[in-house]
Every structure is written in C-alpha cells, then in structure tokens.
Amino acid sequence: MLKKILFILLQLTGLSSFGQTSTLVAINENEKLIYTPDIKGNAIPDFSGVGYLNSDSVIPYVPTLITVDSVTGDNTSNIQTAINNLASYPI
C-alpha cells in the first residue's frame, strides 16, 4: 500500500512540473525571450544581450604588443614608456 501511495505521489509530482507556463516570459516566433512586466511594472531582467557587441559577434583577437612588469615601488616611468612605445604603432 505504501509503495502505491509513493508511486502515485511521484507521478503527480512529475506531472505537475511538466509544461509549466508563465505570463512574465514567453518565446516569440524568432525563438527570442519576451519579458512582460507584472501589474506593478516589474519585469524580469533581460541579460541576453550582455557581452561584446550584444553577444552577436565573436570577440576579436588582439595580440599583446607590450608587457609592463610589476616592480616594487613606483612603476610610472615604465608605464609611460610603454604608452609612448604603443603610440608609435599603427592603429
């Protein structure tokens, strides 16, 4: 009897979580998420565009041209020298 009850509870739990819907988020015809505010105007934040160029482009590879090593104390002159050297490179 206990096994039957457990089996029924497991079946009901699985069915109740299947096919859940929300009025706050939907998928449009382009398979993009659409966020609808609730009655107070609150909306789920859309982070899908976070990233380089709205995450639509690959981040370009930029080679390292100059490396400034850390030193004990003031490193201003090394940083300024690196900036001056980089200024001589073509854009």
Notable characteristics:
91 residues; mainly alpha; elongated; two-stranded antiparallel ribbon; single chain
Shape: elongated
- Assign a percent range to the helix content: 25-40%
Largest sheet: 2 strands, antiparallel
How far the N terminus sits from the C terminus, by CA atoms, comes to 78 Å
Beta-strand content bin:
5-15%
Succession of helices and strands: HEEH
Question: How many distinct beta strands?
Answer: 2
Model description:
With 91 residues, the chain is mostly helical. It has a two-stranded antiparallel sheet. Strand 1 and strand 2 form a beta hairpin. The model has no long low-confidence stretch (mean pLDDT 85).
List the helices and strands and how they pair.
Layout lengths: L1 H16 L7 E3 L5 E3 L40 H12 L4
Antiparallel strand pairs: 1-2
